[in-house]
Amino acid sequence: MANVTFSAPTLPKDITVYAIAGSKGTLLALAKEKAVPIPFQCQDGECGSCLVKITQLDNKGPKAQALTEREKTTLSVNGKLSKELLARAEVEDFPPAYRLACQYWVPDGDILVEFSGEPGVEIDLRK
């Protein structure tokens, strides 16, 4: 069970929803169900338009979640996943901050999901 808080400069206020880990499918599916306007296009991990920044909010420590091959490629091409970050994710089980909402599954734990509101644009560029 998890609380997922969505935050973006394009939202009038943050939106927190309750989710059962994994049962709603991807983070993008949950956002669509709850009418959270995360930008998306292909929904297949190839375009990068649903780029989000994930922050773990509970005290359970960071939880890695395997990156799909498409996500690895798309994040790498867009400069969000270096070889070092990929190695940390795969070897040390340390999650990278940036993920694709269409590929990321709702975890068991509270998270903050930040997005810019613009397809493929990282939130840190809009703060």
List the helices and strands and how they pair.
Elements: E1 2-7, E2 15-19, H1 27-33, E3 51-56, H2 69-77, H3 83-91, E4 98-100, E5 111-114
Task: Please tell me about this protein's structure.
With 127 residues, the chain is α+β, with helices and mostly antiparallel strands. Helix content is 20%, strand content 19%. The protein contains 3 helices and 5 strands. It has helices at 27-33, 69-77, 83-91, and strands at 2-7, 15-19, 51-56, 98-100, 111-114. A 5-stranded mixed sheet has the order 2-1-5-3-4, covered by helices on one side. A hairpin with a 7-residue loop joins β1 (2-7) and β2 (15-19). The longest helix has 9 residues, at 69-77. The relative contact order is 0.29. The model has no long low-confidence stretch (mean pLDDT 88).
Helix proportion range: 10-25%
Total strands: the figure is 5
How many H/I helical runs? 3
How far is the N terminus from the C terminus?
Answer: 30 Å
Order of helices and strands: EEHEHHEE
Strand percent estimate: 15-25%
Shape label: globular
User: How can the largest sheet be summarized?
Assistant: 5 strands, mixed
Arithmetic mean of pLDDT: 88
Main sheet strand line-up: 2-1-5-3-4
The radius of gyration over CA amounts to 13 Å
Q: Report low-confidence residues grouped into runs of 5 or more.
A: none
Question: What is the structural class?
Answer: alpha+beta
Task: Summarize, please.
This protein is α+β, with helices and mostly antiparallel strands and 127 residues long. It has 3 helices and 5 strands; from the N terminus they run ββαβααββ.
